[in-house]
């Protein structure tokens, strides 16, 4: 089982980014979408990205031409997959759309082709059943933008062959990324299991403690060493992504997050964050604007419940052998930019205070009941 030729289905932000990093590693890539206008736009973005790398002396002009020519944009699905070894599906997060795509693939691809879905939330085992060969199906969750983000979560389904896991892990290494294996197909995988519930918890904290968004975000940034505030990060990620991930995660695991209605309101109002000019915050420029967060604002709030919710989900992942503590910290460092491990944050804020806060909240809402690992935390 050797991967030489790759097909990427979907030429959006994730699709064309995955195509680019694969082509940069020397793979021949077919980039497929349903309309030429989508492909033209994607290839322009790839050309722009390669030009930037040339200007920064990270690649030569000759390299840029070779990489660009390693990618063949195509509409015809049969042509895109006839000689492929690996199909990376990066179509929108809609189960029915993915069902349609895999149904078409079942009719035309050879039996030994590996299917890899770039889904961030949909269950891999469920998706694998849409194909004729679930043993050849795996999740490869890249992070946005794929050209810059080093983390790739590798998620085997219930029936995934170990050889496929090994081959995909080698592939991720070959494109200069860090694979972290999510050993069980759980809701949210690793990073989203931590991140998505925190967006909801930040909103509950606002309501409960009567503080502003920028105060909470300042506390998260300066007291917890996050690269940016929770609301700021949600706006950067996109409230459409947050909403869809929240829905899918809670659909499959009622204990993973405590839904706050504000996420759905923003989504339905098309207030999706930076991409629409307004989400939790307002943005006036096309380039990404940083929110004014300060240490003075941070001093006004103790984000105990935010750390508690993160620690509860982190403990659940380790306790259920979804990943090791080392892999958890690596994934959160590379995927969320966390400079401090979750349990080190508990120590920083005081284990007893975090535990007491969770117990107090747990009296009103079972969701907050502390994990046994935290109850025994030193």
CATH topology of the largest domain: N-(1-d-carboxylethyl)-l-norvaline Dehydrogenase, domain 2
Domain tally: 2
Name of the top-level CATH class of the largest domain: Mainly Alpha
Strand content: 5-15%
Number of helices: 18
How many whole angstroms does the radius of gyration measure?
Answer: 21 Å
Low-confidence stretches: none
Number of strands: 8
How would you name the oligomeric state of the polypeptide chains in this document?
A: single chain
Query: Structural class given helices, strands, pairing?
Result: alpha/beta
For the termini, the CA-CA separation is: 47 Å
Your description of this structure?
Helices cover 52% and strands 10% of the residues. The protein is α/β, with parallel strands linked by helices and 378 residues long. It folds into two domains: 5-181, Rossmann fold, CATH 3.40.50; 191-375, N-(1-d-carboxylethyl)-l-norvaline Dehydrogenase, domain 2 (Orthogonal Bundle). β4 (86-89), α5 (95-108) and β5 (114-117) form a beta-alpha-beta unit.
């Amino acid at each position: 089982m050797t991967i030489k030729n790759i097909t990427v289905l979907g030429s959006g932000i994730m699709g064309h980014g995955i195509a680019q990093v694969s082509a940069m590693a020397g793979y021949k890539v077919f980039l497929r979408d349903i309309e030429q206008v989508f492909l033209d736009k994607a290839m322009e973005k790839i050309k722009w990205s390669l030009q930037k790398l040339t200007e920064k002396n990270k690649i030569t002009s000759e390299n840029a031409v070779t990489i660009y020519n390693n990618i063949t944009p195509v509409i015809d699905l049969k042509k895109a997959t006839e000689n492929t070894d690996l199909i990376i599906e990066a179509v929108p997060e809609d189960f029915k759309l993915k069902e349609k795509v895999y149904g078409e693939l079942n009719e035309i691809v050879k039996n030994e082709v590996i299917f890899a879905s770039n889904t961030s939330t949909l269950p891999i085992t469920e998706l694998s059943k849409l194909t004729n060969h679930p043993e050849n199906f795996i999740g490869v969750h890249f992070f946005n933008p794929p050209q810059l983000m080093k983390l790739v979560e590798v998620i085997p389904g219930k029936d995934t062959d170990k050889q496929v896991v090994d081959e995909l892990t080698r592939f991720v290494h070959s494109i200069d990324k860090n694979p972290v294996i999510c050993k069980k197909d759980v809701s949210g995988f690793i990073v989203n299991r931590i991140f998505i519930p925190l967006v909801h918890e930040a909103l509950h904290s606002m309501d409960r403690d009567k503080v502003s968004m920028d105060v909470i975000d300042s506390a998260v940034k300066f007291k917890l060493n996050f690269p940016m505030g929770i609301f700021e990060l949600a706006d950067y990620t996109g409230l459409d992504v947050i909403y869809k991930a929240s829905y899918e995660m809670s659909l499959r695991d009622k204990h993973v997050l405590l839904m706050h209605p504000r996420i759905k309101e923003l989504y339905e109002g098309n207030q999706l964050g930076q991409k629409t000019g307004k989400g939790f915050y307002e943005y006036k420029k096309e380039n990404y604007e940083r929110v004014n967060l300060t240490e003075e604002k941070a001093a006004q709030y103790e984000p105990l419940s935010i750390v508690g919710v993160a620690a509860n989900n982190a403990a659940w992942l380790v306790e259920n052998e979804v990943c090791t503590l080392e892999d958890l910290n690596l994934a959160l460092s590379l995927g969320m930019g966390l400079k401090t491990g979750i349990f080190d944050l508990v120590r920083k804020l005081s284990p007893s205070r975090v535990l007491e806060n969770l117990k107090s909240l747990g009296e009103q809402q079972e969701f907050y009941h502390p994990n046994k690992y935290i109850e025994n935390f030193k």
